[in-house]
Amino acid sequence: MSIIEFKNVRMAYGEKVVVENFNLSIEKGEFVTIIGSSGCGKTTILKMVNGLVRPVDGNVLVEGRDTRETDLTMLRRNIGYAIQGSVLFPHMTVEKNIAYVPNLLNKRDKKRTEQAVEKWMNIVGLEDSLRSRFPSELSGGQQQRVGIARALAASPDILLMDEPFGAVDEITRGSLQEEISRIHRETGITVLFVTHDIGEALKLGTKVLVMDGGSIQQFAPPREILHAPATDYVRKLVEKERRRCHLPEEKLGDCEYSGAI
Ligand SMILES: Nc1ncnc2c1ncn2[C@@H]1O[C@H](COP(=O)(O)OP(=O)(O)OP(=O)(O)O)[C@@H](O)[C@H]1O
Ligand SMILES: [Mg+2]
């Protein structure tokens, strides 16, 4: 069953049309990476999933229900949203930030919330000593990890990530990539992950969505994107990565991109 479905969606901000005749089905448990030129509508697509923006026309279904007819609070409880930049509550400690949603869900069961905070800090690789720090006292990479832990702490079925690893160094990025891949494997969560880095898109995705000018260029597993680029846009996008792979065409299947690290 599709966990997310866009049906003939048209989305515009005033006169500015972002997507039109947009159709996409995402299966439960898929890790979809989304890549495409700046302004092509990637963030808008994520925001339509959790109802932050509404399509002008067409339907967005999440777990079979039209988002237009779903209570937004209920919808968002099941959807984690990790975005780039400073999105943490600045007046709350790391612990309080991560505990925010579990607190709402667990009401007075403090022990359960504490356990959730400990578990997720551990999973995203945050030292326990950072618990009582405020966001302004953390590095950019640590802030991003808190953002990811906070999005995951509610145990959502769907995780939306908008360029979550943009502001970190290569090594931290590599370890965050491994962590998110492991979380995906272990929890079966459905992930939509926007990135500007084709290497990252191919490495993390079980499927890659390539967008340009508001339309889908290709939606396929990483191997297929590399083996059989559907358009010139995709071909150009993957060319550099194919060279980096140092493999002849027929051997590309042996490349590191198999949908998981
Ligand atoms: N609130 C808004 N009001 C008007 N136009 C908007 C609004 N949000 C986005 N847009 C426009 O809609 C288009 C798609 O924006 P969107 O943020 O989805 O792009 P994106 O693919 O995420 O880009 P980037 O890679 O730069 O983050 C852009 O042309 C943008 O300028
Ligand atoms: Mg964006």
Any key phrases for this structure?
Rossmann fold; 6-stranded mixed β-sheet; 4-stranded antiparallel β-sheet; AAA+_ATPase; ATP hydrolysis activity; ATP-binding; ABC-type quaternary ammonium compound transporting activity; ABC-type quaternary amine transporter
3D architecture notes:
The protein is an alpha/beta fold and 261 residues long. The protein has a domain at 1-78 and 190-261: Rossmann fold (3-Layer(aba) Sandwich). It has helices spanning 42-49, 72-77, 94-106, 110-123, 140-153, 170-187, 198-204, 222-227, 232-245, and strands at residues 2-13, 16-27, 31-36, 57-62, 65-66, 79-83, 158-162, 190-194, 207-212, 215-220. The strands form two sheets. A six-stranded mixed β-sheet has the order 6-7-8-3-9-10, sandwiched between helices. A four-stranded antiparallel β-sheet has the order 2-1-4-5, with helices on one face. Helix 3 packs parallel to helix 5 (140-153) and helix 4 crosses helix 5 (140-153). The protein is globular. Helix content is 38%, strand content 25%. Adenosine-5'-triphosphate (ATP) binds next to strand 2 and helix 1.
Lay out the secondary structure.
Blueprint: E1 2-13, E2 16-27, E3 31-36, H1 42-49, E4 57-62, E5 65-66, H2 72-77, E6 79-83, H3 94-106, H4 110-123, H5 140-153, E7 158-162, H6 170-187, E8 190-194, H7 198-204, E9 207-212, E10 215-220, H8 222-227, H9 232-245
Parallel strand pairs: 3-8, 3-9, 6-7, 7-8
Antiparallel strand pairs: 1-2, 1-4, 4-5, 9-10
Bound molecules: adenosine-5'-triphosphate (ATP) and magnesium ion (MG).
Adenosine-5'-triphosphate (ATP) binds next to strand 2 and helix 1.
